Every structure is written in structure tokens, then in C-alpha cells.
Amino acid sequence: MKKEIIIIILILLLITTLNIITQNYTKESVENLKIKLNEISKQIDKDEVNEENIKKITEDIFVMWKKYKGKLEYYIEHDELEKIESELFEIKGYIEEKNYEETVPKIENTIFILEHIEEKYNFMFKNIF
Q1: pLDDT at residue 70, as a whole number
Q2: φ, ψ for residue 112 (rounded to 5)?
Q3: Per residue in 47-99, pLDDT tens?
Q4: Closest by CA position to 18, among listed 121, 116, 115
Q5: Where are the domains positioned within the chain?
Q6: Measured between alpha carbons, how far is 70 from 37 in angstroms, rounded to an integer?
Q7: Taking Cα atoms as reference points, which of 69, 70, 72, 63 lies closest to residue 21?
Q8: DSSP line for 18-66
């Protein structure tokens, strides 16, 4: 009986530890992507749009996304990640077309999806039951 209890406690500790690790990684990923997306919004809101700077930030976002996506795929639904990737490509397309009016709503939608994923995969009792 003692062995079973010890095994159960160890499994619970392992699950909790892994959940904390994945939650921290998800939070870090979402925060860094949101910062970059907000930078683009701020650049667009300026009187003079610096196209080179916006393109540079967009490239940085895609480099970050490739880095984060590889690890996020292990524990987040692929549909959720595809939504983000789709939104990022639309943002990139609008920026390349210099259609900045459409870019800002897409950025806000992408940030909403990122926050939703962060909340959805948070370790809370309401998410367990």
C-alpha cells in the first residue's frame, strides 16, 4: 500500500512540474510575441510610417514564432497554432502591401488568440474539471 501511495505522489509531482514548465514557456512565448506585435502597432500609429522598421519587426516575429512553435507543438493543439500562424501571415501580407489599416485589427486579433491560448493552457482547477 505504501508503494502505491508513493508512486501516485511521484506521478502527481511529475505532472505538476511539467505543467509549470510548459505554462512558463507558453507565458514567455505569448508575452514576447505580444510585445513585438504591439511594436508594429505603435509604428503604424506614428505620423510617418517607417516601412523598413516594420518589416524588420515582422521578420523578428517570424524568427521568434519558428523558435516557439517547435516546442509549443508538443502540448498545444495544432489548430490553435495554425490560427496564430495564419494571422501572422496575413499581417505580413498586409505589411508587404502597405495596407496598414487592415494590419492593426489583425494584430489585435492575433493578440487575442495568443491570450486565449495562454489562458486555456493555464493550470487551474476549472481547466481540469
Answers
A1: 93
A2: -60, -45
A3: 778 888 999 999 999 999 999 999 999 999 999 999 999 999 999 999 999 88
A4: 121
A5: 23-128
A6: 20
A7: 72
A8: HHHHHHHHHHHHHHHHHHHHHHHHHHHHSSS--HHHHHHHHHHHHHHHH
